[in-house]
Amino acid sequence: MGVRKGRAAQTEAALKAAARRLFAEQGYLNTKITDITAAADRATGSFYQHFDSKDDLLRALLADMHAQAGEALAGREDGEPHDLTDPGQLREHVAAAWGVMRENRPVMTALFESAMAAGPASGALWERLAADTVMFREHLEYLRERGRPLPGDPALVAAAMGGMLSMLGYALPPGGDGYSDGEVIDTLTGLLLRGLAGA
Q: Does domain 1-51 fall into CATH 3.40.50.300?
C-alpha cells in the first residue's frame, strides 16, 4: 500500500472510531460531522473524501458489521446453508449475531436512532431489518425448500428473529444487567428453536 493510500485508510479508520465513540457518548442524532472530525483530529474536508454524509458513514459502519458477522460464520466448508432447526447451528448463528451486535453497540444504537428519526411511514426500519436478516432468510428458505414447516414466510420469520435480537441488544445495558452473553445466547437459542423446530 502506498503512502497516500495508507494515510487515507488511517483517516477513514480514525473517522469511524471517532464516530463510534461519539455515538456511544452522545447519540447519533446529537453527533455532528464536525464533532466526528474534531474527535478524529482531522480536517472537516477530509470527512467528505471518505463519506458523503453522516448517513453514509453509518452505512459504512453497518457494512463493517456485516463483514464481521460473515467472518464469524465463515468456517463452514461444505457451502450448504445451515439448518437453523439444529440446536448447534442455530446457537452458532445466534452467538455470531449477538457477539457482533454487542461489540458494535454504538452502531446498533445509531442505526436505531436513524431509523426512528425517519419516522414509521418511511419504512426505513423495515428496510433495514429486512436487509440485515438476509442470511437468516436464506437459511429459512433452504429449510422450506426441503419441506420443513416454518411458523411463517421466511422473510417475515427472519425479520422477527433479527428484530428480537437487535432490540434486546439495544435495550440490554453494556454490562448485561447481570446476564452473561452465554445466558443470553442460550435463552435466545432455546426460544427461537421452539419456534422453528417446535421443540
A: no
